[in-house]
């Protein structure tokens, strides 16, 4: 079982597509982002509601409307995204087993139960380090890593794909994409 939901992965990937080639924000609809990545539209809409509530994205109205980053990409951390989508989660729940040893016969000695459980303490240290690592990585950092890995033309292809879809929506009756109109 994973610690974070699939929504966190979907959300991070979507925010990457909202970062332009030079780190600027670009706009896209949730429908376009869902289709671009092959993820469920209804689920993605709920994720964007959470991202907007956390003020990580902002919406624009109208036929060409969509979402864009609400802050610069270098100010949105992976921890911000995780907390917006899944909320704050503990990686470990101590069940205080240390006092249940059969040798204690239901009456654990003070030494066994005083202070923080050593296992709980180790897990909380691990969580703190993980959250620190997520807080040090911004969406711009990840976008730059992807940019170094992808072919040079990929960023422009994404931009063209999103722009083409937005243009087709605004050019069609009632803002329905031409590809969605049945013959």
Description:
With 183 residues, the chain is mainly alpha-helical. The chain has a domain at 6-88 and 138-177: Winged helix-like DNA-binding domain superfamily/Winged helix DNA-binding domain (Arc Repressor Mutant, subunit A, Orthogonal Bundle), CATH 1.10.10. Helix content is 51%, strand content 4%. The chain has a two-stranded antiparallel sheet.
Structural class: mainly alpha
What would you call the quaternary organization?
single chain
Largest sheet, described in full?
Answer: 2 strands, antiparallel
Indicate the overall shape: elongated
Number of helices: 8
Q: Helicity, in percent?
A: 40-55%
Poorly predicted ranges (pLDDT <50, ≥5 residues)? Answer: 177-183
CATH architecture of the domain at 6-88 and 138-177: Orthogonal Bundle
Using the coordinates shown, work out and report the CATH topology of the domain at 6-88 and 138-177. Answer: Arc Repressor Mutant, subunit A
CATH class of the domain at 6-88 and 138-177: Mainly Alpha
Secondary structure elements and pairings:
Elements: H1 6-17, H2 30-37, H3 41-53, E1 57-60, E2 66-69, H4 78-86, H5 110-113, H6 118-136, H7 139-149, H8 154-171
Antiparallel strand pairs: 1-2
Helix pairs in contact: 1-3, 1-4, 1-7, 2-3
């Amino acid at each position: 079982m994973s610690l974070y939901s699939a929504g966190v992965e979907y959300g991070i990937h979507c925010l990457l597509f909202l970062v332009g080639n030079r780190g600027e924000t670009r706009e896209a609809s949730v429908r376009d982002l869902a289709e671009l990545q092959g993820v469920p539209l209804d689920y993605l809409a709920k994720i964007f509601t959470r991202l907007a509530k956390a003020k990580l994205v902002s919406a624009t109205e109208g036929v060409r409307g969509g979402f864009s980053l609400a802050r610069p990409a270098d100010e949105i951390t992976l921890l911000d995204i995780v907390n917006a989508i899944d909320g704050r989660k503990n990686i470990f729940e101590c069940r205080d087993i240390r006092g249940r040893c059969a040798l204690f016969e239901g009456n654990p000695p003070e030494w066994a139960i005083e202070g923080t459980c050593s296992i709980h303490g180790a897990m909380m240290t691990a969580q703190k380090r993980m959250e620190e690592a997520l807080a040090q990585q911004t969406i711009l950092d990840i976008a730059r890593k992807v940019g170094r890995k992808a072919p040079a033309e990929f960023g422009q292809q994404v931009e063209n794909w999103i722009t083409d879809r937005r243009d087709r929506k605004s050019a069609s009756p009632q803002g329905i994409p031409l590809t969605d109109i049945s013959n």
